[in-house]
Amino acid sequence: MHVHSLQCRRPFSPTNSPNAPPSSTHSFSSCSSAPDLPLCGRYLDEEDRRVLRKAIPVSFGHIPPYALVGLITFGTMTQVHELGYTECSKSYVFCGGKEYASKQIQDMLGLSSPARAACRPGGVSAYRHTRVPSMQSLACRERQVSLRCTGVALSVTVGLLETTYPNTGARIMLFAGGPATEGPGMVVSNELKEPIRSHRDIEQDSVKHYKRAVKLYEGLAKWASNNGYIVNLFAGCPDQVGLLEMKSLRNFTNGVIVLSDWFATSNFQQSFLCIFNKDDQDFLEMGFNATFDVQTTKELKVSGLIGHVISAGKKSACVGETEISIGQTSAWRLNAITPRTSTAVYFEVATPARQALQPGSRGLIQFVTHYQHSSGRQRLRVTTIARNFAESGSPSIAASFHQEAAAILMAEISVFKAEINDSPDVLHWPDCMLIRLCQKFADYRKEDPSSFRLSDNFSIYPQFMFHLRRSQFLQVFNNSPDETAFYGFTYP
């Protein structure tokens, strides 16, 4: 009879390469890096072409070697390049004047068959010698206005990603060397006699392509955001490229906007590389498919959120009746999230009728953020804060006033109002709110302006409102529509 002691254990094999469990290898991991799809206009100046041919491959060196990449170029046609094909330069061509449905894109790319759709290409490290030749197709700009089917190119890109990686974080980077002049989404024709639209043209409703272009890009933005894709817009042109028409792509997906005269400028090159900044652990400072949930106690209600998000449609008990921007929900989705992402959440105090708050009572707010880290892992961050309630007229209200934070929140509402309404009343709204604030918290004697005094907590708030009222965020004078849209993008 053999007796085995529990104190005598058989050691495991060493965890080296031959003996490593399959689950520890990358091929068996459930973590994946987001696909990266550069989308380049073909008609560029020689210097811009040289910069992009260098910048895009350099950016691939900043992402993990197993990350997935692709390349799509567009001019009169849209070309989807097959980077893994080494025999010759191979691409799939789409007509620039035609609008494609998702099923058509899937069929034309040969992704309808389950066997082809199941194939997954290798990471970016496998294409170091095949992706650079594909950049040779970027042609120089001719003297006439070039044809660019930007809308079709974006549609094909989103359709390709939806077929291969649905509901997965992915980043689309559009490099526009000029306005869309061909097919769906065109901003202006290629006739030199037709100038691109101005603010006055839009106000007078005399822009031929504006409404159709806005409708198309809004549809693309919803299509991309519902799948978790991010759209980055890089404009390298001294003229307008149609950022105003494409603003929904940024608003819905929380992408990046860079506006420069040429791609050869340091403004573009430095901004482009900043997207690939890394943290102390050598991970990219970016997250994907984030959800932002707000929970409160019964005394507080969520009025809404201002930011580049979409509603998650969660109407919980903490949703208030007052609606500010994206309201009627307590949860939102952000396709992209970085350490610099900011949103403004607005609340209202809601108590039962004729029932006062108990002295010393506190309201609790909890922010729950869930996202996919650039390492591929899911992360959850929960922040809970408590704030004391105060009766109307209590000195603690003025003592706790944070004028910098208040200025930002008021500016967010002002910019939001200006985007959805071009009435002159929008410009007067910050002034009206400032007057109401001064009536409530300032010390003064009627008919005696010299007696007006504000405490230190409020002293510079009027200056913030003064400069906001006259800033490019609310004023369009001497700005093109694209510049106005760009300033609205960069504020939050």
Automatic annotation (TrEMBL):
Domain Sec23/Sec24 beta-sandwich: 287-389
Any Gene Ontology biological process: intracellular protein transport
GO terms of molecular function: GTPase activator activity; metal ion binding
Single GO cellular component term: COPII vesicle coat
Entry membrane topology: Peripheral membrane protein
Keyword tags: Cytoplasm, Cytoplasmic vesicle, Endoplasmic reticulum, ER-Golgi transport, Golgi apparatus, Membrane, Metal-binding, Protein transport, Transport, Zinc
Subcellular location as annotated: Cytoplasm; Cytoplasmic vesicle, COPII-coated vesicle membrane; Endoplasmic reticulum membrane; Golgi apparatus membrane
SUPFAM superfamilies according to UniProt: beta-sandwich domain of Sec23/24 (SSF81995), Helical domain of Sec23/24 (SSF81811), vWA-like (SSF53300)
Domain named Sec23/Sec24 helical: residues: 403-488
Biased composition annotated in UniProt, kind: Low complexity: 11-33
Entries under Pfam families matching the protein: Sec23_BS, Sec23_helical, Sec23_trunk
Region (Disordered): 1-33
Domain of life assignment: Eukaryota
Residue ranges of every copy of the Sec23/Sec24 trunk domain listed in the record: 45-272
Family as reported in the entry's similarity comment: Belongs to the SEC23/SEC24 family. SEC23 subfamily.
Functional summary from the UniProt entry: Component of the coat protein complex II (COPII) which promotes the formation of transport vesicles from the endoplasmic reticulum (ER). The coat has two main functions, the physical deformation of the endoplasmic reticulum membrane into vesicles and the selection of cargo molecules.
Name recorded for this polypeptide: Protein transport protein SEC23
Biological source species: Pisolithus microcarpus 441
Lineage: Eukaryota, Fungi, Dikarya, Basidiomycota, Agaricomycotina
